[in-house]
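Obj.: predict assembly geometry.
Materials: sequence records (below).
Method: joint structure prediction, all chains together.
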Amino acid sequence: MHDAVAAAANFIHLDAANIVYLFLVGFVGGLVSGFIGSGGAFVLTPGMMSLGVPGLVAVASNMCHKFPKALVGALKRAKYGQVDVKLGLVLGVSAEAGVLYGATIQERIKAAYGAAGSNLYVSVAFVIILGVVGSFVLLDAIKTKRAGTQNEAEKITKIARWVQSVNIPGTMVHFKSLDARISVLFTIPLGFATGMLAATIAVGGFIGVPSMIYVLGAPSIMASATELVIAFVMGLGGSLKYAMHGMVDIRLAMIILAGSLFGIQLGAIGTTYVKPYMIKIVMGTIMVIVLFSRALMIPVYMSELKLMAPIGAGTAKMLSSTSFAIMIFALALGAFIVLKAMWEGRQAERMQVAQPVSAAVAGKI
Amino acid sequence: MAAEQKKKPYLQTVLFGVVSIALYVLLLSKQDLINENVAKGGFYALLPIAMAFAFSFFHGNFTGCFWTSCGIEASKKTKEVK
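Observations (raw structure tokens):
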């Protein structure tokens, strides 16, 4: 059994400034999560570490705020008929396996190459995955806007059409979000990849949501809502694992939750006012900006591993601060787009309601 | 028109808000005791998990009622699924 006294020593002293900071970051993270199904975690973990929280406790506490947040968000969006619980659970179970495998890989890399090796692996994974998937999602959303087809029903991709056409007896399951039967042999690797990404960069949704949209053929709104179910399953399993080792700082988790539950309710409400392509705009924008943030850190870790000429401590610190600032900017920009889209949607709806009333009044006069 | 408008859940907001604030006051005032037990791990892992569920229920309901009371609700085109 682990040393409880040593574990308790990992829990930092909390003052009013720390509480306000965690509450605000939680709120913005929750707002984005409520809208796109994930996000926020990539800022929260380094954000906690910047307060002096040890890395593992930050990851564990983030995980423990994630599952109750995802639960509240999923319940809210289920009220709007946006959640495919069955798809979320099927993907969530394989995602859990992906989390465990991803964590094992992380541990092996850390044991072989130290903390810098592990950080380099995480940053390279960030840059490659966010580069490929993020650019694809963002370009698709821009293409939809330019073509002026944002009001039309989303078309499913050729891959999704093929996936839905394959019939493997004994493995077929009907999912309401797809309005089709697909083989779970397709969902298992997608869920696994989502979990592996969650264990690596803390945001599995950056694989989970695009794969539900482009590979399985789910509408964007339903994919982002269903991701909350996957996040709940992964978060609950991960929290239990870390809590068994006494690594969860429940105060941090609950303070972040205080802010994020305000945010997630607002983000979920926001999805009812926007066109589906806005989900892709917010997700793609955040992914592409975060990519630059992590790319900045690659030379720092490579220098620590002696894979390139050493860089000065001042330069390393500057790169690290800039990287963190870019991540906060990505999250804040995502939140701004969500709030703006929601505001415009509400205004448009009010105008629609006001027009017949004013026409009726004019008719009477 | 007025009859169509739903009543704002002010009472629920206050009730869930009071319980939510009480939970947070308790969490921060007893933090040493809570930290000590959570850090034990093992079966004590159920403590943070149970706390997370309790906070998500009370604070989740509070935040939901809060936005509704502020007039921020889902688009009228969205039909709620009961």
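Conclusions so far: Strands of chain A lie at 172-175, 180-183.
To do: check interface contacts against the pulldown list.
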